[in-house]
């Protein structure tokens, strides 16, 4: 029998007993901003984003490189570089104000109730320590358990994430595992203390397509089993379609659209979201030899003051109003868009 760690997911909160719409909010973010000091000036990496995640929900933050996804994840965990400043009107985990935590309180929360899966496991795992040492360290730091109980928990989770010969693997080092197995170790490490929230920063980017599919399926199954809230960061709309409950689309440091996953794919409202979907190659519709669909223009610089809609120079629907800061319009209970010309548009993807 494996060591029991009291968590929301494992103790008595079954996700199936309540719909996600009724489940309590685990993470609430309002007007989050991240500014970085650079030799060229202040870079506004995250510019006033709002979102929330409920228990048992998988929220995907999606956008192209440089849109602020990873900076958002680091801001949530307070792991920003030294030249970065984090501000927010609200940054709350359960009843805890993350902005007012002291260093000791922050350390107690991070890795225990809030965990993170990083993009590249080879650089996230310490090459000087065995896998067993690194897995058990998290549990020993946050829970009153013996080393034997910590090892038992580690073996149990390694088996759950599909690592063969788990007990023997505890004595191995990161370089002795493949990329896919290392990422499974990172997932097991995130689950060691049974966190209520996991932030996954593009955890499948460095993996081949077959291993990626296995990791995504396993992560979704574990998330549903343990009732964990997950913020999943990706640039891949195929990944979003596979695992998301709800999606927040980011562009130039802002969330430009939030919607349930199927509604976003079939009724995208922001021109940027529509542009992303139109860029997906579709078998039978893509003409051989013809160039693939692309969004014209380039992402604007985020250094210095920003005015108006950041997408306006690339938008085919741009008009004079777009020179002003666009409102964040609520279209339905679960669908909001940052655009002066927000219109529900049915598309086929």
Question: Mind telling me which CATH architecture of the largest domain this is?
Answer: 3-Layer(aba) Sandwich
Q: Give a count of the beta strands, DSSP E runs of length 2 or more.
A: 13
Radius of gyration, Cα only, in angstroms? 21 Å
| H and E order | HEEEHEEEHEHHHHHEHEHEEHHEE
* Category from helices, strands and their pairing: alpha/beta
By CATH, the superfamily of the largest domain comes out as: P-loop containing nucleotide triphosphate hydrolases
Helix proportion range: 25-40%
The biggest beta sheet is recorded as:
8 strands, mixed
The rough form would be described as globular
Strands in their spatial order, largest beta sheet: 7-8-9-3-10-11-13-12
Tell me the CATH topology of the largest domain: Rossmann fold
What share of residues are in beta strands? 15-25%
> On the 0-100 scale, what is the average pLDDT?
88
Number of helices: 12
Distance between the termini: 47 Å
Give start-end ranges of low-pLDDT stretches: 1-19, 344-349
Oligomer: single chain
Number of domains: 2
What is the name of the CATH class of the largest domain? Alpha Beta
